[in-house]
Amino acid sequence: MDLHTLMRALPFAKVPEENPEITGLVQDNRLVTKNSLFICIKGYTVDGHNFAEDAEKRGAAAILAEKPLNVDVPVIVVRNTKRAMAILADMFYGQPSRKLHLVGITGTNGKTTTSHIIEKIYRDASRSTGMIGTMYMKIGDETLKTKNTTPDSLTLQKTFHEMVERGVTDCVMEVSSHALVEGRVHGCDYDIAVFTNLTQDHLDYHKTMAEYRRAKSLLFSQLGNSYPQSRPKYAVLNVDDPASKEFEQVTAAPVITYGIEHEADFMAQNIVMDAGGTAFTLVTPYEKRGINLQLAGKFSVYNVLAAVAAGYISNVPLDSIIKTVEQMEGVRGRFELVKGGQDFTVIVDYAHTPDSLENVLKTIRQFAKKNIFVVVGCGGDRDKTKRPIMAQIACKYATDPIFTSDNPRSEDPLDILCDMEKGAEGQKYDVIPDRREAIKAAILRAHAGDVVLIAGKGHETYQVIGNEVHDFDDRKVALDMIKER
Q: Can you tell me the distance from the alpha carbon of 476 to that of 461, in angstroms, rounded to the nearest whole number?
């Protein structure tokens, strides 16, 4: 595509007379190849404008920037390169999200599990699927690494294009609040937007719960303002969460509801839970069906209801949906059992917010026969206000709380632990800063019938201490400690 044709997507862009062929869009100067358009992005720590000359040397045919630059290739100056990048990426790659059935999932907790269930529902219905989220990207059967829950707009459009080229029909993706505020999903033409829940998290970024809620609402307002019969759009909302009322107001799309406590289009009734799973009666707009899950906990029921609703309005037969959800064994690092032949239960879970930790511990209390150990910490350089709340919840629901390090990043782990202890005054707990030693202590102390919950990191296989990333997998460490007993 030549430069002039590409720039037609940007209103009033002042395009130089030169009209080179553009063979790729790049925002990382190290990835520039001959005839690339280099897009200068101002990041939190790095400003792409400082690398324009290097991009030119590497073969960039033109540069998109927010100010004039001293280079010899054409420079197109725009007010906001991030916004322009989304528009150009959508055009350059042929508006690929319009060629996919695209599902976006947002919420504090449950995004990863819900996305995996929906993707499996589609796949079992003989659809070709893609997935983008916290753990990885998937294009068909191929799994790719990802840095963020929701990548930037250029990466997204390039990925969608590759999915279309490889025959993918349905893509399911997690949509973070950061991505919504920063415009990373501009250009994503969603067919279904799903809301899981809203509880405290990311206040270091959003500052207030009102701003956090507003950020999440953007996914639903971006569903559009028309009703194309050939491609209907839907907002799938958790009616039991108060934030759904605001999301219903900001979207023009038809609203599909799910829930347990309040009347909804898709409901779970007669819920029975134990360590082996959960049974309930699924109520749809037209019929009731019995469901037997291998997943434990009320939070799992919510995730399944969201996925069932999304599958149903995607024209997947209910029999197929039920067969899929009953076969689901869970997602890596989400209420995952660690089995090493021990006579007590060890669970690894990603619970890193007050609500998710409380939900997991409440579920454990329903089947625990004796003591409940919880190994929990809080991440550094993140929302400090949730630290004492996490500790308070650990002490409330566990018999043996152990406070430890999570990913301390640039903070002193002892300072983080001090913040946690403020929520546990007068309570019984242990502090073991070294995470490996904390896990070891819990497993060595556990006896038959006890439950050990290792919370906070889930699927992660690393620990960030200072500027260094260390290999660390809660599941592997737990299994090693079980074997050492």
A: 9
CA distance 300 to 113: 8
Supply the pLDDT for residue 147: 81
Closest to 316 (Cα-Cα) out of 99, 149, 170: 170
Instruction: Report, in angstroms and rounded to the nearest whole number, the Rg of the chain calculated over CA atoms.
Output: 24
The pLDDT value given to residue 146: 84
* Burial tier of 95 (Cβ tally within 10 Å: 0-12, 13-18, 19+): middle
What distance in Å separates the CA atoms of residue 307 and residue 107, rounded to the nearest whole number? 14
Phi-psi region of 301 (alpha: psi -120 to 50; beta: other; left: phi over 0): alpha
More confident residue, 239 or 202: 239
CA 231, CA 458: separation in Å to the nearest integer?
37
Phi/psi at 136 (5° precision): -175, 175
Within 60-110, residue ranges assigned H as helices are 81-92
Whole-angstrom Cα distance, residue 265 to residue 285?
6
pLDDT of residue 170: 98
Secondary structure of 413-439 in HEC code, one letter for each residue: HHHHHHHHHCCCCCCCCEECCCHHHHH
Q: 26 is written with which tokens?
A: 């790049």
Residues 6+ apart with CB under 8 A from 249: none
- Each residue of 85-110: pLDDT tens digit? 999 999 999 999 999 999 999 998 89
The string of pLDDT tens digits covering residues 240-284 is 999 999 999 999 999 999 999 999 999 999 999 876 789 999 999
Place 367 in a pLDDT band, splitting at 50, 70 and 90: confident
